[in-house]
Design a protein that fits this description.
2 copies of one chain form a homodimer. By secondary structure, chain A is mostly helical. Chain A contains 6 helices and 3 strands, in the order ααβααββαα. The first copy, chain A, starts with a helix and ends in an 8-residue tail after the last helix. Chain A binds a DNA duplex through helix 4. Chains A, B: GO terms for molecular function: DNA binding; DNA-binding transcription factor activity.
Chain lengths: 148, 148
DNA sequence: CCGAATCGCTTGCGCATGCAAGTTGTTTGC
DNA sequence: GCAAACAACTTGCATGCGCAAGCGATTCGG
């Protein structure tokens, strides 16, 4: 029982490392964005009003708040996100997706899907993929920020 | 079809980030080893003679060769691995698990399994776990270095 | 054989990230 | 109301990592 959990956890982490290694290469060269930057944009995309506070973004991305601060700066500079204050709480500094950002994330999703296709190749049936999708969904169902 | 691949890839990466975030906390405080260091030791553990060359280790861990060099140094210092030369090829510098290292990785595996158990809690049946295990195995089957 | 290409490993450098401390703004307890 | 606790964000510092360059060792082509 516990051994099965261990096996699954190990395989999950190894699969993720493998996939991340494959993606990191082909990605930044295409869109000028890193994988993590695209993930940040995707989180904004699926959020109401296309915006999130920095701490909320940090929670959903499983990174520290300082990382969000530093990731957002260059993204503002290239105009894919903007900073937005809250009239009720002056501490809040929302990160909001711009129109340009929306277009960029749509493009990035395309190449992401293409690469994802290579990962599963042709040996996977739709049924396999649905099964895996359902199982993985149960792992992230309770946490906020599912990008699918 | 491609959307299913995309969905699975996103969920896989998100699940892995989530699990890694949970593990990183409870781990180094217990064994004085980081998650990645334990992974390195596990790769050695399942290798013939409990040893691997640095480049082979790099491939299996999906990191660069320089990372292996720098990870091995402190592990040598605390005595869980040792450096071993090859009589045939003087370029090779194997990383070999010591007796102490064997014990340490066994301990680490225990707490790893414990944490893995928390990840899946009690809502997962053995059948679910086997299904997920099989599916994930297909993702890493072609690459060397499966730790399970 | 000998030079050139290749390989395994290490090192310098830059970038990304977490942690802790600091700043500013808000909420709570009295 | 006011002080103390708390929250959101930023910044300094240390660490970990990839890339490219460098160095010794091996292999290959002639």
């Amino acid at each position: 029982m516990e051994d099965l959990c261990l096996k699954n956890t190990l395989r999950l982490l190894q699969s993720a490392d493998q996939i991340k290694a494959r993606l990191s290469g082909d990605f930044s060269s295409v869109h000028g964005l890193s994988v993590n930057e695209v993930f940040l944009l995707m989180h904004l995309e699926q959020a109401p009003l296309h915006r999130l506070s920095r701490v909320e973004l940090a929670k959903r991305m499983h990174v520290s708040a300082s990382t969000v601060t530093r990731m957002a700066a260059p993204l503002e500079k290239i105009g894919v996100v903007a900073r937005q204050a809250d009239s009720r709480d002056a501490r809040l500094a929302f990160v909001v997706l711009t129109q340009t950002g929306l277009e960029r994330v749509a493009e990035a999703r395309m190449t992401f899907a293409k690469q994802a296709g290579y990962v599963f190749r042709d040996r996977w049936t739709d049924e396999d993929l649905c099964q895996l999708s359902d199982l993985l969904h149960r792992l992230i169902a309770d946490a906020p920020g599912d990008l699918t």
